[in-house]
Amino acid sequence: MGWWFGRKSAPADARPFVPAWLQSDAAEEGFARSYSAQFEEVYRKNPVGQRAVRLVAGMLGGLTIDGDERAVALVTEGALLEGVAANLLLHGNAYVQLIADDRDAPAELVSLRPERVSVISDERGWPVAYLYRAAGQAVRINRLEGLERMQLAHIKALHPRDDHYGMGCIEAAIAAASVHNRASRWNKALLDNAARPSGALSYEPADGSLLSAEQFKRLKDELTSEFSGSGNAGRPLLLEGGLKWQALSLTPADMDFVALKEGAARDIALAFGVPPVLVGLPGDATYANAREAGRALYRQTILPMAARILEELGKMLSDWLGPVSLSVDTDQLSELAEDRAKLWEAVGAASFLSDAEKRDMLGFQPAKVLK
C-alpha cells in the first residue's frame, strides 16, 4: 500500500487542522451537517443531485486537452479529471498526488478521497503537508519534496471564511435535497396507503360516555393489524357505536406538491451550476432550448472549473517536466460552434489587423513562409 502515498512520504508527526463543519455530525435546523450524511442526502438518494454532478463531471472529463504531450497523457489517464471535478462539486476540495517512478520522473497522478485528507500548517498558518487517513493508518505527504518540487496539488473551491479548505456545492444543495427527498417519501407513503390521507377516529356516543382502557386498546390493535400498511390499502372501515372517521392530513393539491418538488429540484440544479432544463425540469423560461442551456453550462460552469483544475495540475507538473501549460481545446465543442463562428467573422472583418495577428488571436500557429 506504500506506493499509493509516494516513495518519499514521511510518517505523520503533526496534528492537522480540520474545520468544524467537517467534524460535526450534529444536525442544524433539521439538515445533515457531516459530509457523509450530506453525500447520502444530495448525491446517493437524490436523482437531481446525482444527475447534475454526473453531467458536469462527465462533460469535463471528456474535454480535449492541449499542451505538453507528457503532461496531457498524465492528466487524461483514466477518469482523473472526472473524479477531480466530482470531488470539487461535492466536497469543495480535490487532492491529486504525483507518484514518481524509479528514475524520479512522474509516472502517475492519483486522486485522493478528500474527506480523508487534512491540511497540516506551520506556525504561521501556511500549509506545509497533508495527512491522509485510510485503513486505520495516517500517512504524511509533504507539499514539496526533493528540490522544492510539488508532489500534491490541492484544488479547492471558493470559501471566503476558510484559509485551508474549499466549500462544495453540497452545502448549498442540502436544504433543497432534503425537501425533495422527503416529498418523495411522503408521496410513496401516501400511495402505500391507497393514496388516502391519514385521519382520526372520534368517539361520539349519544349518552356522552367514554371508551374504557380495554376498549381503546382493542380498537387501536384492530386499526394497526387490519387497516394499516400497504397490504391493507383500500380496505374499508366498519364503524359502529358512535365512532366517526375524520381526515386530518392535507391533500397533495393542498400542499402544492408538484410545485414543491419542482422548486426544490431547481434549487439543487442551481447549486451545482446546471441549467434546470438539462436535468429534465420543464417550464424553465430562462433557456429557450437545450442548445442554449448546453452553451451556458460550458461557459459558466465547466470551462471555468476546467481552467482552475488544469492550472493547478500544470503548476505541479512544471516542477517535474519544465514549463507546462494545459488548456481546453474549445474548437472541439459543438455547443460553442456558434460563438466560435461569430468570433472568426469579427476577427476576419478587422481590416486593421494583419494575417499574423488574426491567426494569433484565434489561437492558430504562425503561418509557414514558403521559400
The amount of helix comes to 40-55%
Q: Low-confidence spans: pLDDT under 50, at least 5 residues?
A: 1-28
Distance between the termini: 59 Å
Strand content: 15-25%
Q: What spatial order of strands do you see in the largest sheet?
A: 1-7-6-5
Question: What is the general shape?
Answer: flat
Count of individual helical segments: 11
Q: How many domain modules?
A: 3
Radius of gyration: 29 Å
The quaternary structure here is single chain
What structural class is derived from the secondary structure elements?
alpha+beta
Indicate the mean pLDDT. 79
Order of helices and strands: EHHHEHHEEEEEEEEHEHEHHEHH
Number of strands: 13
Biggest beta-sheet profile: 4 strands, antiparallel
